[in-house]
Amino acid sequence: MKIRPMAQADAPDVLRVYAEGIATGHATFETETPDWDGFDRARLKTPRLVAEIDGRVEAWAVMSGVSSRCCYAGVGESTIYVGEAARRKGVGRALLTALIEASEAEGYWTLNAGIFPENVASIALHEACGYRRLGRQARVGKMRHGPMAGQWRDVVLMERRSDRVGVE
């Protein structure tokens, strides 16, 4: 496995992995995979990482901003998707660890994540990488696809505070 920065040439594989996550019905409220321009515009330019296995991108992790206010400059939302072929092989943990390190190198002191409670593997991954549960937003949105279509979904809020950045 190789972890490296995401490149535009990775778009087909990144979007394929995203589509696999959408199809589970437990990864996002999104119902359709965006085109690359939409994906690109919705996320910060860095850090963006991919995990490559045998020359093919099988997982990705990116950051999104949480606010345009300057006091939140070091707070970001982390997102990770692991394709079916790479699940339960340590790829997610290696990739999320690399994203944490890259985000700290860019000055982020807090990472947030919102995860459906049914996605126990993602919650366990985040906890293994130092995130803690802050709480649960009840009925935050109604699902339009997947096994819970038509149902209101809760989201578990998680946070990871750096022990190296923003501690002074």
UniProtKB/TrEMBL annotation:
UniProt domain N-acetyltransferase: residue ranges: 1-163
Pfam family for this entry, one: Acetyltransf_1
Annotated InterPro entries: Acyl_CoA_acyltransferase, GNAT_dom
This protein's UniProt keywords: Acyltransferase, Transferase
Transferase listed as a keyword: yes
PANTHER family reported in the protein's UniProt record: N-ACETYLTRANSFERASE, UPF0039 PROTEIN C11D3.02C
Protein name in the entry: N-acetyltransferase family protein
Taxonomic source organism: Hyphobacterium marinum
